[in-house]
Amino acid sequence: MTGPVALCCGEPAGIGPELAAKAWRALGSDLPFVLIGDPSHLPPGTPVAEITDPALAADAARRGVPVLRHDFPGPATPGTPEPRHAQTVIDVIARGVDLVRSGQARALCTAPIHKKALQDGAGFRYPGHTEYLAALAGTARVVMMLASPALRVVPTTIHIPLAQVPRALTAELLQDTLRITHQALIRDFGIPRPRIAVAGLNPHAGEGGAMGREEIDLIAPLLERMRAEGFDLQGPISADTMFHERARATYDAAVCMYHDQALIPIKTLDFDRGVNITLGLPFIRTSPDHGTAMDIAGRDLANPSSMIEALKMAHTMGAARAAATP
Fold first, then answer.
1. For burial by CB atoms within 10 Å, which of 148, 285, 296, 316 has the most?
2. What are 187-199's pLDDT values in tens digits?
3. Domains in the chain, ordered, with CATH?
4. Is 303 one of the annotated binding-site residues?
5. Is the pLDDT of residue 29 over 90?
């Protein structure tokens, strides 16, 4: 896996095209990527270097945005999704997966998609990118990580109502999340003995059962069993004491019990540089930690920091996984 990062174009009516152009201007040939999409969707005046082989991306990046051409049914109108484009957006994702699985690209980075546009235009039946990628890979269980230079966090339960979290939080789910996170930290981040901090579910980690028993009945016994296997696990820890600077220095990733418990700290600490990573896939996948931002699409207002960090992280993680693979 020594090729470039493959960047799927995402929703062409969103900010993806301008982010790709801005990322190329920032990274150039120092960190080559290849955009899979329609070159006509890039902002007017963007230099384009069309290629037919990802291996040519590094040289092409000296001239313009390296593009593996994937034609769409028509032009893109910023801020207005075109239903005819939906199936092509999906096809681009599948093409990106083919490139990384065949070894032609070292990692996959995905620009944001517009889920409703895909559902309306192509009957897309997946909740989002992550679930579709897992289906393409034949992977039953994947884990979402948000990472930045300041912090790595993993929510055990994700996009469900808060009232459903206690029922959804099972020992099996938490164990799978911890194992996948542990393996990824070794294989994809080059951390030989990962230290993982585990949050409690309740305020003050249940305060000895006074504020809930999930820590006593579920979380603590599981952590004890996994420590006996050799895992370096802290917790369950009260979430309100986990994320200050001294605490963060004691672990490599924090596993939290629900979406906001994990995402509020990282978005507070490093909003612009957060990267969404899918752990557990047979390939590296990153994405900027934001949506299509239809309201500012085409106005040259989009901040490319998260996209740039996602491309950098994909490159670094791809190299780490290649080095760890016999």
1. 285
2. 999 999 999 999 9
3. 1-143+278-326 (3.40.718.10), 150-269 (3.40.718.10)
4. no
5. no
